[in-house]
Amino acid sequence: MSTETVLRPGWKVPIIxxxxxxxxxxxxxxxxxxxxxxFRLSSSxxxxxxxxxxLPVMASGIxxxxxxxxxxxxxxxxxxxxxxxxxxxxxxxxxxxxVGLLVWAFVDATLPVTGLLTGTVALSAPIIYGALGGVISExxxxxxxxxxxxxxxxxxxxxxxxxxxxxxxxxxxAAMIAGMLVSFVLAAxxxxxxxxxxxxxxxxxxxxxxxxxxFFSQVLSEDxxxxxxxxxxxxxxxxxxxxxxxxxPVLFNQTVIIYIMYVxxxxxxxxxxxxxxxxxxxxxxxxxxxxxxxGIAVNRTRFWNVSLAGAVAGLGGAFFxxxxxxxxxxEMTAGLGFIxxxxxxxxxxxxIRATLAALLFGFATNLQNVLGIIGSPIPSEFMLMLxxxxxxxxxxxxxxxxxxxxxxxxxxxxx
Amino acid sequence: xxxxxxxxAVVLYAAHSFLLSRLYEKADLPVSSAWIPLYNLWTFFRxxxxxxxxxxxxxxxxxxxxxxxxxxVAAYVIGVRLDRNPYWTVLFxxxxxxxxxxxxxxxxxxxxxxxxxGEARDLRIRLAVREVVSGNAMISxxAVVLxxxxxxxxxxATDESVQQAAGYFFSRPLDTVQAIWDSVAGAYTAxxxxxxxxxxxxxxxxxxxxxxxTLMFATPLIVAGLGVGLTFRVGMFNIGGRGQMLIAAAAxxxxxxxxxxxxxxxxxLAVLAGVVxxxxxxxxxxxxxxxxxxxxxxxxxxxxxxxxxLIQWMLRTPGLLQAPxxxxxxxxxxxxxxxxxxxFGAKYSLHWGFVLTIAATALVWWLLSRSSLGFQFRAVGExxxxxxxxxxxxxxxxxxxxxxxxxxxxxxxxxxxxxxVKTGFSDGIDAGIGxxxxxxxxxxxxxxxxxxxxxxxxxxxxxxxxxMQAAEGIPIDIVLVVQSxxxxxxxxxxxxxxIFRLPNPARTLAxxxxxxxxxxxxxxxxxxxxx
Amino acid sequence: xxxELRGITKRFGSLIANNHIDLVVNPGEIHxxxxxxxxxxxTLMNVLYGLxxxxxxxxxxxxxVHNFAGPGxxxxxxxxxxxxxxxxxxxxxVAENVALGHxxxxxxxxxxxxxxxxxxxxxxxRFGFEVDPDAIVGELPVGVQQRVEIIKALSQNAKVLVFDxxxxxxxxxxxxxxxxxxRQLRDEGTAIVFITHKLREVRAxxxxxTVIRLGAVVGVAxxxxxxxxxxxxxxxxxxxLTVHKDEATPGEAALVCTxxxxxxxxxxxxxDNVSYAVHAGEVLAIAGVQGNxxxxxxxxxxxxxxxxxxxxxxxxxxLTGRSVRHVLTSGVGFVPEDRTEDGLVAExxVAENxxxxxxxxxxxxxxxxxxxxxxxxxxxxxxxxxxxxAQGIGTHVGRLSGGNQQKVVLAREMSKDLxxxxxxxxxxGLDVGxxxxxxxxxxxxxxAGIPVIVVSTELDxxxxxxxxxxxxxKGGIVGIVPGDxxxxxxxxxxxxxxxxxxxxx
Lengths: 415, 531, 505
Fold this sequence. Notes:
The structure holds three protein chains of three kinds.
Chain A: H1 12-31, E1 36-40, E2 53-56, H2 57-80, H3 87-105, E3 110-112, H4 113-139, H5 147-165, H6 168-192, H7 197-218, H8 224-227, E4 236-237, H9 247-251, E5 253-254, H10 256-274, H11 276-286, H12 288-293, H13 298-324, H14 336-346, H15 351-374, H16 380-399
Parallel strand pairs in A: 1-3
Antiparallel strand pairs in A: 1-2, 4-5
Chain B: H1 2-26, H2 39-47, H3 54-58, H4 64-81, H5 88-94, H6 96-105, H7 118-134, H8 136-157, H9 160-167, H10 173-195, H11 204-207, H12 209-233, H13 241-258, H14 263-292, H15 296-315, H16 353-370, H17 372-382, H18 384-389, H19 394-420, H20 433-443, H21 448-472, H22 477-491, H23 493-500, H24 505-530
Helix pairs in contact in B: 1-6, 4-5, 5-6, 7-24, 8-10, 8-22, 8-23, 9-10, 10-21, 12-16, 12-19, 12-20, 12-21, 13-14, 13-15, 13-19, 13-20, 14-15, 14-19, 16-17, 16-21, 17-19, 20-21, 21-22
Chain C: E1 3-12, E2 15-25, E3 29-34, H1 41-48, E4 56-61, E5 64-66, H2 71-76, E6 79-82, H3 94-99, H4 113-127, H5 142-154, E7 160-164, H6 172-187, E8 191-196, H7 199-205, E9 208-213, E10 216-221, H8 227-235, E11 253-263, E12 269-279, E13 283-287, H9 294-302, E14 307-314, E15 317-318, H10 324-329, E16 332-335, H11 339-343, H12 350-354, E17 365-366, E18 369-370, H13 372-385, H14 402-414, E19 420-424, H15 432-447, E20 452-455, H16 459-465, E21 468-473, E22 476-482, H17 487-494
Parallel strand pairs in C: 3-8, 3-9, 6-7, 7-8, 13-20, 13-21, 16-19, 19-20
Antiparallel strand pairs in C: 1-2, 1-4, 4-5, 9-10, 11-12, 11-14, 14-15, 17-18, 21-22
Helix pairs in contact in C: 4-5, 14-15
């Protein structure tokens, strides 16, 4: 304790990176897998055909491991210079590590890269919408545990409305309204009746689950044709953009809901940090009393922005029924709302980072599908665990003590 | 059999006497008087200012029903003397033993008689009435009533015969009313008969079976609720019940079907393995939070998935959890030497895990309100920075709380594999209890006995829900709706007050203040007179 | 603009915070509102600012009655306020804070922060402030933060400006500068309300003085009145401005700190190589403006700081690197500066709070079980001994007044077998009666032969209690001087200047 030292950023990051890069090296050296992994970058129907990448497993594995060790070393070097490891280093490290793992897993097999990524975007969509809803709500100072409920309400309502009207856009609108209604309850109970926001959120999830399941069994199953067979959105390739290799099919040959999602992410980001609306939202979430003293109606701001958050999350719900599955099923959100919540915290209440976190979860889920086809050398369950373990490591080691909006969770009461 | 009844009677008598002795001690009466048969009853009535002869009436068959009423009056008076909400008297009517726990072990002190003038007495009565109608107990009851009404409305609205009758509402409105009554009454009757007592059965032994089912379903809900509630008290939120239950179930199950040991070793060992499994799984969260500040909500959610995939893998891997010679992801059945034996024979599903639950509730009660560790837990939960300044090791408290919480939730997993589903389990063994436990803890306001009650209520909903589904074709999901509404309404007393137009407690407070002012005046007056 | 308040009455439940208060402030006038903590000054100003709604009375500006539903209305009418607890968003920049509430925007609601930056620059220039519009407010020193508050209020063209206890966080020099700003504003025609409980400042700057006590106006005073006159008006009785204490009889050096350095999470030296000793039976006061390392210094002794270098010896035993529990059991009593945040658990009862820092020790705990009977007797006794005004030991501490809360903390900390007492901001926010009580207790502890450290930003308190005074500035000790050192010298030292004749620490 009594030695004269200057505080440095911790060694946690380089140590974790080092462990992972050594793991990668050992994986390739010890497993002794030889052969070629084929990464297919284009599918047959695309305009521009890229040749498939053929990677010799051992060689690429060692190259990747060396690169990983290099990155870990860079991080360690930064620490000795009392500097933090930049986020992009960690991101590059993660991507490389994942590529290495894929090369290893797909020995003598073909990995459809576009398929993997396209599915990732689709599977991430509800998480991204949910996370955006979470970001807005928490930024304005209301903890939103009810994302799961908002997603589920959106999924249910959009299915019913789109089925009855045969118009998926009306379903989309209905999903927003449904998510908003869930938010109304959250807002009313937490703002007007000062009930603990976490409690209301948890209970709302159960309530929405109960209601949708009840109506599903009691009403929807009576006349599935009329009530629960919504028309789905078709894929809508964007001219030119969708022809770009890899990126085109992944990003620009998707349904309307995905395009709305791109816009939503951009809007929420720009709105939060560059507009009057965002300034006020953040002020209310950080220091409501200060916001009040400059004439901002704190509780009204909270109420409407929580509602907005619900509408956004509701859109995510519509993706389940109008974008992927095609009909409503009991408990079809399957806990993705909680994953969205994790993405919010993992993404430090920032819409872009939260979106990236959501993509990580989507990627993992889709990886399961892809691995299921070829039969992975390591049990697929362990691959599936990976994103959750990575999240834990990230939250514990890399992100550290994250601090949300200062006033999140606290009701604002005027004396 | 007779021996068993005698033992039970002695135990009950001892419990009553012990609790009475605690009560008498508060009132400065000789403790021994609580243990003498008859005389203890005599003292009880005397304590309330009633004639001791009621005690004699109480032992005469049939006539003692009158004494029962007198005893309720006595309980009311004693309750008021203990500064307890008069509403507690209802508890005495239902279960005197429970009331005695409150009166004997509760923290309230005996209040000597205050000389009263007319004004004070008048105020006191008004205050008592107000407290009854605006107090917590009333709010809870009304919340339950309101939730049941909403549930009924949903049942009626989606009932086909109601919809048909509503089609010709204007020609024969009574048909609609009749149809609504039939559907709602049918549903709730089925719920009651599936959870408390089935009047359609011939014998009491058959009729009471639903109640034992309720307690069976309540068992894991209560322990898991205790685990979640404990973390609430420490200012944390354990959403990881699912993962902890799965790990605990796997550990307990594995010990159960792998070894061949005598029961007195095997059963405790299996239970212990499960508890430790749950504790370790939750302990990871505590350690991460303490060491790195990782948010426990996010870590518990993530660990749910990790546990789920881990168990899934183990269930399909021969030599780990998979039943030998099977391709299904399912374990072999539990060994007979390591399951909770049925409490009342094979006919009833209730097992000794329930007794373990009662013990766990008592233990958590003691931990939170009587132990040093619990005091530190609560201090950290209410104000972590003050706790830190007061020398409490906040980080270690997080770790301990998660360990204990995980152990309790683990016990719920144990109760699932060794009590509820003894024929081997798959990856759905947690049955959503990890999440239900959150609602149970909220309804019980994170207090051990509150959670116990909430767990039994939810257990009843679960048991009754199944029979409602079977008998009336109403989806069991309605139970979720009613449960969540109860919690929601209880959490917002102003809403309940607005709906039922109850008086505002702020005004009750003002009344109480004027009461104490009036009392102070009386005391001053008395002093003057004495002087 | 002329401000007039007529018969303002504001109640909180049965408590009357303001009782028919009348006040007239003319343009070009500094009107001081003098009263002790809890007299109702801030409530009155919150009514004026639209944060509270008065039950009775009216607010007139230039003779026109206004009804303010919220601060927005008040600001629009030309009222600005410099709040005691700054109403600034710490994570925002200066420009964002100034813009908040009346943002100028470009297309689609996009913020036009350049306009706000310009406002900041213009106003800064007018008053000679040096404020960077793009600095993050939370990273600025408190003195600068206050200037941001002033800029924020002026950016609204406030014609009536309220300063709510503005000097609490300033050095005497900064206080002088603030007063110069106030005079400049007055000369430009602004009507200024200056809320304070510090007599010296009132006399220095006010044109007229209104004194309020227990929510009602008790009279009007003149800046030429003596301190004693003002004080007795404020408190309602003659007040001893000094604590009666005998000459100290210091014994052995009990607490010896050598080369003490504290680093914060980012590696800055918040306490920088400080050495001092406290002797048994003396009060060492640590003076200085808020935020110059005093908090961290006391927390380092308590084991509450993570990165501590150097040595802290209590009775020749090393305390550095020990746990808080260890330090407490070594016989150190600690009254933290923020009692509601660090000293008490509001939801706990008085009794529970009295055992808070001995939560795992006999006599409160035996075999892991709370000894409720002992606790009850102990708490009853302390309630009487410290004259804690509570309904009973079962009352939640959050319901007590500030003074009674502080008594609970003192009762807890002083009922131990003390080897050292560390008291931070002992009387912050207390009424005069409680202040006298707390001061008496501190002196009694000293007289019992216990070393006492008192940290205070109030020079009056420092002078009243101290046998010796250590003045801190930017993490270091400027000097340790005798208790009777004149204010002017202390003031210079608080700004980092070492007057001639003062020996190094």
